[in-house]
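The authors assume throughout that readers already know how a fold can be written as discrete tokens. In essence, backbone conformation is discretised, so a fold becomes a row of integers matching the chain in length. A single example would do more here than another paragraph of explanation. For illustration, here is how one protein appears when written out as sequence plus structure tokens:

…
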Amino acid sequence: MAPKAEILDISSDEEDVTIPKKKNYKKPPSENDDLNDDDDCLILDGDPDKPVQVVKNDTGNGSDELLIVAVKGQVACRDYPHPRHLCVNFPFDTSAHEKYCSLCHCYVCDTLAPCAYWGTGTSNYEHCHSTDKKEIWKLARLILKSSKQAKSAHFSESNIPNRLPVAPPSLDPEPTTLTW
């Protein structure tokens, strides 16, 4: 038989033992507390029992490309006017540059695509290739913008006087110089 284990309990009743109390820290109020009050009630955008229509979109190349099946809300470069190089419908890096959507505009001319210099994509200097990533297109845009401002300032109605200046009558045979 195994010897009996001896247990010694050493305690002193004279010492006061203090057990630290658990501190209750309050969680700071959150903005989402009002929204998450009831986990049992959830408002859905659509019918969860309605089957999802599956569209077979086989590209034929066997790639695992990302396929967007639904979009919610508005996207700036899809739903609002945008330069061609920022178009979401025809991504600049993966589609032909001469293609454009109904909201694309020329980066250089700042007019609705296609502009007069849009081209067919054969020349590197056609505006369909313009982007804010290349200095040549930034410079072309700046030059065109400054020339438009110069033309509008030169021909604005505010620069045209109401009456033409009239020289005072003179008996001198020399012509009088008019200044504005």
